[in-house]
Amino acid sequence: MIDPETTAQLDDEARHILRANDKEGYTVPTKGLYPFQWNWDSALTALGIATYDANRAWQEIEKLLSAQWDNGMVPHIVFWQHEEGYFPGPGEWQSGQTPPTSGITQPPVAATVVRQLASSLPGDHGARVTPMLHALDRWHQWFADARDPDGRGVVAIMHPWESGRDNLPDWDEPLSHVDTSTVGTFLRRDTQIVNEAERPQNHDYDHYMALVQFGRNCQWDVKTIAETCPFWVAEPAMNAILRRAERDLVALALQFNLPEIARRATARLARLGQGFNQLWSDDAQGYVTLNLRHDKKDNRLTSGSWLSLYGGPENDNRAKAHYSTLMEWRRKISFTVPSFDPNDAAFDDIRYWRGPVWAMINWMIATGLAEHGRHDLAEMIANDTAALIAKSGFREYFSPVTGQGGGGKDFSWTAAMWLYWASPTARPKTETP
Ligand code: GLC
């Protein structure tokens, strides 16, 4: 266990990082590598900020939602200020928005965060929360309309970056159908800042840019994207996070007397509840990625598979399968939860989403485990997360094998997850509503 003195030092350091990454109303994930507002980073970071500054935590969400598109989408990056040389920047995305944004979204954790803040912070939040709930309702409706126009009950992503798990091996097969012949040459910025061995490969990046080009060419028209985007994939993390967000939105709408929102969110939730089963794989005994364009399942498990427990109530047999696989993975590596199956040939413990552990995914998995009564497993994950941070600092992610830190340093959501959840000083407070 981490001693009280180290705990106090890490608590201070985490607050210092969040304050240093604060850009007046929003927090950058880390300086240099990610110098703008990122969607789910910002929402999850608000949980950490709330441990010392309630007003500033609310601002984080308000600022993010203020960049919502007219069609309801809340973008994955908001370019609030100019940053020389960032790639791919506003010129590549050409979203036509003010402020400029990317053209895609990210996992909608914001409603869940708003519920956490509203239930844990003192005061009457009605005036502040009501406009947020209207914005969240529009965003969730956008998911239903734009990303599941056929009403099958799972939402699709049109770019790996939409999942927030950028270079997961799950995308390799769906990306192989994306034509990269018109991408041309470009200069990546990420590999100038971070060790190349930890980042996606150039081959992957060509495919990412081809999809950005596709979106730009159709001016991010959701109908064209749904009908013809070569990458159209349903994956368990995005769908589980959206289910959770809809449940939290229903609860908030009832609490703040917005029955129309509660009604719409309940209907969307029912559709997602039925659809999620399409991602179950008997072979893998877990939830997996489904390439909707080619109706092809990837029978490999990822950290996203465990989020079914966070998304909603799980049946006993499937829950048991999750617990035993989790323990089987734990025996293979030293720190849970790896982003990809450590038994698989594609596992790479330090290359971005092909193996490493992320603190905020761990928080979500642990939350789902605790809600299913597995406080022991939730605690194991919290302890592993704390041990990683104590060993390697507030890095972007960590090797599940060695505990070594990777990617960016002084990372906001790692600091936030420490303050809100993994630090020994946070433990008694982390009961979800
Ligand atoms: C990477 C991650 C994504 C995150 C962003 C900023 O792109 O894959 O999930 O939002 O970095 O931290």
Task: Report the sheet with the most strands, covering strand number, pairing sense and barrel closure.
Answer: 4 strands, antiparallel
Low-confidence stretches: none
Q: Can you count the beta strands?
A: 10
CATH topology: Glycosyltransferase
Strand content: under 5%
Helical residue percent band: 40-55%
Alpha-carbon Rg, integer: 20 Å
Q: Which ions and ligands are bound to the chains?
A: alpha-D-glucopyranose
How many domain regions? 1
Name of the CATH first level: Mainly Alpha
Shape: globular
Q: Helices and strands: which structural class? A: mainly alpha
Alpha-carbon distance between the two ends? 27 Å
Physical arrangement of strands within the biggest beta sheet: 3-4-7-8
Helix-strand string = HEHHEHHHEHHHHHEHHEEEEHHHHEEH
In CATH, the architecture is: Alpha/alpha barrel
Number of helices: 18
Polypeptide structure, described:
- This protein is mainly α and about 425 residues long.
- It has one domain: Glycosyltransferase, CATH 1.50.10.
- It has 18 helices and ten strands.
- It has helices at about 5-20, 40-50, 55-65, 90-95, 110-120, 125-145, 160-165, 170-175, 190-195, 200-215, 220-230, 235-255, 260-275, 310, 315-330, 360-370, 375-390, 410-420; strands spanning about 35-40, 75-80, 155, 235, 280, 285, 290, 295, 395-400, 405.
- The chain has a four-stranded antiparallel sheet with strand order 3-4-7-8.
- Helix 2 runs antiparallel to helix 3 and helix 16 packs antiparallel against helix 17.
- The chain starts with a helix and ends in an 11-residue tail after the last helix.
- The model has no long low-confidence stretch (mean pLDDT about 95).
- The structure holds alpha-D-glucopyranose (GLC).
- Alpha-D-glucopyranose binds next to helix 2.
